[in-house]
Amino acid sequence: MSFYFLEATAFIKLFVQEPGTDALIRLMETVEDNRKLISASTPLEVYAAIRRRERAGDIAQADVAQALETLRLESARAVQQPLNPAVLEAARQLLDRTQLRWPQALQLGAVLAARDMFKGTEIVFVSASAPLLEAAKGEGLEIIDPVHQATEVN
User: Fold this and answer.
1) Distance of CA 140 to the CA centre of its chain
2) pTM above 0.85, yes or no
3) pLDDT digits over 126-135, tens only?
4) Cβ neighbours of residue 5 under 8 Å, at least 6 residues apart?
5) Which residues form the domain of 23?
6) What average pLDDT score do residues 84-92 get?
7) pLDDT by residue (tens digit) across 38-81?
């Protein structure tokens, strides 16, 4: 049984139509809520991205209200990895050995802490960020890019 860790660039696709949205929705329809993992910071990161797109005029106000409500509901259904010392330390170590920016390191640090907590459980890292996918692959994670619907096993 696999768990799916949805990084913010993937999670937002559940609320805003963009490349990869349809593929991610199809995938998530097959996954039970208790097997969907997100970082505790992801809802805020996605909220900020939706508001940023609203201010830029890329999303209609009526669609924003619906996206934010769906974000609230889906965030509550997913298992959230808290931002605890293990996550922060994993993120710090990633910053030492990769070119990731700190929000990216925080996302990947969260999945690495979850993997350590759920030893023996496969966690698939889902992201639309090429640098994050590459770093996750380097950490030995199976990855999915919903834009290209690619699944890779390291």
Assistant:
1) 17
2) yes
3) 999 999 999 9
4) 37, 38, 81, 110, 111, 114, 123, 124, 125, 126
5) 2-152
6) 97
7) 999 999 999 999 999 999 999 998 999 999 999 999 999 999 99
Kindly report the three-state secondary structure assignment for every residue of 25-50.
Answer: HHHHCCCCHHHEEEECCHHHHHHHHH
Query: For residue 116, with 0-12 CB atoms within 10 Å meaning exposed, 13-18 middle and 19 or more buried, which class applies?
Result: exposed
The CATH number linked to 126 is 3.40.50.1010
Number of domains composing the chain: 1
pLDDT score of 152: 52
